[in-house]
């Protein structure tokens, strides 16, 4: 792969058909694709994220927490959180 080629990452939401316009990376290196409009609509903190389309936006959250935030950033049925540990849920609550 050429250094100038952009790798498109997938949205973590199964069967999501929205166009990906932001590539995000968790603190532990996992990348996901997402949608700036959804992030802005569902999360007050994300409205301050400004990026160039070709950039990877890095977040301080780990992959588990970032994926949970992304799952709550879609107009779909909420994910089952019953199997998550209290540490993840507490961290999620503190960042929403």
TrEMBL record:
This is Uncharacterized protein. It comes from Paramarasmius palmivorus.
């Amino acid at each position: 792969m050429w250094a100038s080629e952009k790798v498109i990452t997938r949205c973590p939401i199964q069967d999501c058909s929205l166009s990906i316009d932001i590539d995000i990376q968790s603190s532990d290196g996992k990348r996901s694709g997402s949608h700036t409009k959804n992030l802005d609509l569902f999360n007050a903190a994300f409205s301050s994220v400004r990026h160039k389309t070709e950039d990877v936006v890095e977040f301080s959250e780990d992959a588990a927490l970032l994926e949970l935030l992304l799952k709550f950033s879609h107009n779909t049925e909420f994910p089952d959180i019953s199997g998550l540990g209290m540490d993840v849920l507490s961290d999620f609550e503190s960042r929403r």
